[in-house]
TrEMBL record:
Name used for this protein in its record: NADPH-dependent FMN reductase-like domain-containing protein
Positions of the NADPH-dependent FMN reductase-like domain: 3-91
Cross-referenced InterPro entries: Flavoprotein-like_sf, FMN_Rdtase-like_dom, NAD(P)H-dep_FMN_reductase
Domain of life according to the entry: Bacteria
Any Pfam family the entry gives: FMN_red
NADP keyword on record: no
GO molecular function, one term: oxidoreductase activity
PANTHER family: FMN REDUCTASE (NADPH)
Keywords assigned by UniProt, alphabetized: Flavoprotein, FMN, Oxidoreductase
Length: 134
């Protein structure tokens, strides 16, 4: 089966985003997929905010994206955008395979329409599928 990288962009350890993402992780694992969780908030701030893309934490995250057959990204919505910690990671030129990204956000779909364009830019022009859960 596929290896799925499950990325939580929530800055909070206890969040609806995290609960939604971990629920999906369990469902994917039950179907035989290998699920690799990545909580962006656990990456050191100096790695996320610094300019050194060779920082070990950034190298490790980049490798996780590269090895994944699919990527699920969970993020809270702040003013119709995704979280700052997630943006800090994606700004490191993280690349994903084509047509393999699902973005989950516990918010109304109408509020997230601008975020689809932002993710398309962050994911180098690839248009992700967006699933909103209000």
């Amino acid at each position: 089966m596929a290896t799925v990288l499950s990325v939580s962009g929530s800055p909070s350890a206890a969040s609806r985003t995290g609960r939604l993402l971990r629920h999906l992780d369990r469902r994917l694992a039950a179907q035989g997929h290998e699920v690799v969780p990545l909580d962006v908030r656990t990456i050191p701030a100096e790695a996320l905010l610094g300019a050194d893309v060779r920082h070990p934490a950034i190298v490790e995250a980049t490798e996780l994206f590269a090895r994944a057959d699919g990527v699920v990204i969970g993020t809270p919505a702040y003013k119709a955008s995704y979280s700052g910690v997630l943006k800090a990671l994606l700004d490191k030129d993280i690349t994903v395979s084509e047509d393999c990204t699902l973005v989950l956000a516990p918010a109304a779909a109408e509020a997230l329409t601008p975020a689809v364009d932002q993710f398309s830019v962050a994911l180098l022009g690839r248009l992700p599928a967006l699933a909103a859960a209000s």
